[in-house]
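Predict the 3D structure for this chain.
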Amino acid sequence: MTSPRDLQDEMPGDGEEDDLMYQEDAPKPPPEEEHDHQVLQANVDPKEWLLEVERVSAKLKVVMPNDSKEWRTHLQQTKSYKQVIETQFPNSKVQLDKLTAQLSQALERIKSKEAFINTQFDHRALDYRQQQEELQQVQQQYTELNEVVMNLQIELKNVGEELDLVKNEMDEKSSAATDTTPIVKMKDAFKRLRADTRQLEVRIGVVSHTLMQAKLRQRPTEDRKQRGVYGDSRATGDEDQYDEQDP
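Done. Predicted structure below.
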């Protein structure tokens, strides 16, 4: 890329104008300073001087940055763009004019077709609007009836649950009324009670007979014989009585 200095050299007249604009008379030094500007004689070894120059020469180089914002670069780019536009614009303009004409014709055809379609299908569009309105009304009625059906289904479910509860209560009451199990248990208990009562009566008779014999043994022999006979007859009578009471 060309540097700003090269662009300045290529542009005719720019350097001269700059020289005229910035040209100034060099001030003459006063007589006292002329002696200071005379050539100095150095006593430094030339080899050491060359080594020092090589050491610091890399640091003393001034690199001019390639600034893209410099106005001369912008001016050159603008001129190049202008040339490109001047060469390409005529062909592009012709193509754009053709494209404009084609688009205009296409738009005219579309408008004519649209007008024809509107005239031919106007009554069908009206029928479609009417059917659309009827469909909306039917859908609204459907939603309302659907809500009514849902409410009735909920009520039916509640009534069914209540009916099941009533049936369960009736079944429990009927089963309790027809159940004869408690009566059978009572009869069995009464039979066992009668059997136990008979056994107790027999045991009481045996115990009373044993006591009677023990009393008779303590009396004299004569009385024991008489009362022994009486006791045997009494015991026999008691046993016969118990036997008659047994089922």
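Confidence is low (pLDDT under 50) at residues 1-27, 235-247.
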